[in-house]
Amino acid sequence: MAASISCVLQGWPSSRAVSGSAAHQSLAGVPVVVSFPSKGSAAVERAAGIRCEAGSGEKVGFFGRLGRVIKEKAKGDIDRLFNGFSKTRENLSVVDELLTYWNLSDSETVLDELEEALLVADFGPRTASKIVDELRTDILKGKLKTGPEIKAALKANILNLLTQKVTTTELQLGTSRPAVIMIVGVNGGGKTTTIGKLAHRFKKMEDTKVLMAAGDTFRAAASEQLDVWAERTGSDIEVGEGEKKRPAAVLAQATRRAVEEGYDILLADTSGRLHTNFNLMEELRNCRRSITKVLPGAPHEVLMVLDGTTGLNMLPQARQFNQVAGVTGFIVTKLDGTSRGGCVVSVVDELAIPVKFIGIGEKLDDLQAFDPEAFVNALFP
């Protein structure tokens, strides 16, 4: 049996307090996540105007609320997301042309051309074939009889590929502090910049303490670049000690500091590396182990940054990094209108790992939570 829960909106009469399943009805439309962690945050409750307690008197989780606030921002960025996928949408414009005068006798020809359009948009052979085969089956069964019906089914099939194998696109940060997020990826993907943007989002929450770990000890000036982001976002930074710093040692030291000094979030940077370099990839494994040794259960998220302009090159990179580091989510960057958005679907479909954020520009606010439905609508308006 689920634990009971009571919620009180601050400023409401006490008679508006509700409990059990009724709480969910009364809170409809309020962007909160009700959970049962061990710690809460008075600052978050003040910002949200809500106080929730479980049957045992525990407050709703800080990290649950934090994830929800970040998620809500995606709802207001549809136009910018639309612009970010202009190139992919251009490649897929042929879909409307194919379906405008669609008839059953030409269905095979149309489906073949539709599959080709998906391939051009970097959906990948496996994913494109899966989407078209599903349409073909429904057409033969008589479920789809018009062009608009086929387009609606096409969008539904793609949305299904983005959601059926993953439980959520929200951050899963555990129930106690600090939450550790490890950022991995190949050279040039935008890891350090992404850390800065994540910190900016977290710092928007009142009293959120963010620590950055300069785990990229190979690239010249990497720690200096991260230090700029720390200053810009009002975060702290741990750079390690000594001249010849090892990434694993820096991350272990940062984790200890985060625990001892009561930080809410630790953002751990790592060195960019080619997924084909065995020794460097093994060092990445050591980085993860060093964090876990200090704080069992951490890192809570391992987010891989993927360059949206590389298309299907994302797939082999993602496979290898997942094997070594245990990737829990992707951040797709550089969606600036030249990127090939279909690869996002292929990566999620093949690896069953969600996209959690997408980068749609260079400004601090240009990292938004991934919304699968908005993404599909941006590809097929």
UniProtKB/TrEMBL annotation:
<dbReference type="InterPro" id="IPR004390">
    <property type="entry name" value="SR_rcpt_FtsY"/>
</dbReference>
<keyword id="KW-0472">Membrane</keyword>
<dbReference type="InterPro" id="IPR003593">
    <property type="entry name" value="AAA+_ATPase"/>
</dbReference>
<keyword id="KW-0675">Receptor</keyword>
<dbReference type="Pfam" id="PF00448">
    <property type="entry name" value="SRP54"/>
</dbReference>
<dbReference type="GO" id="GO:0006605">
    <property type="term" value="P:protein targeting"/>
</dbReference>
<dbReference type="Pfam" id="PF02881">
    <property type="entry name" value="SRP54_N"/>
</dbReference>
<protein>
    <recommendedName>
        <fullName>SRP54-type proteins GTP-binding domain-containing protein</fullName>
    </recommendedName>
</protein>
<dbReference type="GO" id="GO:0010027">
    <property type="term" value="P:thylakoid membrane organization"/>
</dbReference>
<keyword id="KW-0547">Nucleotide-binding</keyword>
<dbReference type="GO" id="GO:0045038">
    <property type="term" value="P:protein import into chloroplast thylakoid membrane"/>
</dbReference>
<dbReference type="GO" id="GO:0003924">
    <property type="term" value="F:GTPase activity"/>
</dbReference>
<dbReference type="InterPro" id="IPR042101">
    <property type="entry name" value="SRP54_N_sf"/>
</dbReference>
<dbReference type="InterPro" id="IPR036225">
    <property type="entry name" value="SRP/SRP_N"/>
</dbReference>
<dbReference type="InterPro" id="IPR013822">
    <property type="entry name" value="Signal_recog_particl_SRP54_hlx"/>
</dbReference>
<dbReference type="InterPro" id="IPR000897">
    <property type="entry name" value="SRP54_GTPase_dom"/>
</dbReference>
<dbReference type="GO" id="GO:0016020">
    <property type="term" value="C:membrane"/>
</dbReference>
<dbReference type="GO" id="GO:0005525">
    <property type="term" value="F:GTP binding"/>
</dbReference>
<comment type="similarity">
    <text>Belongs to the GTP-binding SRP family.</text>
</comment>
<keyword id="KW-0342">GTP-binding</keyword>
<dbReference type="GO" id="GO:0006614">
    <property type="term" value="P:SRP-dependent cotranslational protein targeting to membrane"/>
</dbReference>
<dbReference type="GO" id="GO:0009507">
    <property type="term" value="C:chloroplast"/>
</dbReference>
<dbReference type="GO" id="GO:0009772">
    <property type="term" value="P:photosynthetic electron transport in photosystem II"/>
</dbReference>
<dbReference type="GO" id="GO:0005047">
    <property type="term" value="F:signal recognition particle binding"/>
</dbReference>
<feature type="domain" description="SRP54-type proteins GTP-binding">
    <location>
        <begin position="354"/>
        <end position="367"/>
    </location>
</feature>
<dbReference type="InterPro" id="IPR027417">
    <property type="entry name" value="P-loop_NTPase"/>
</dbReference>
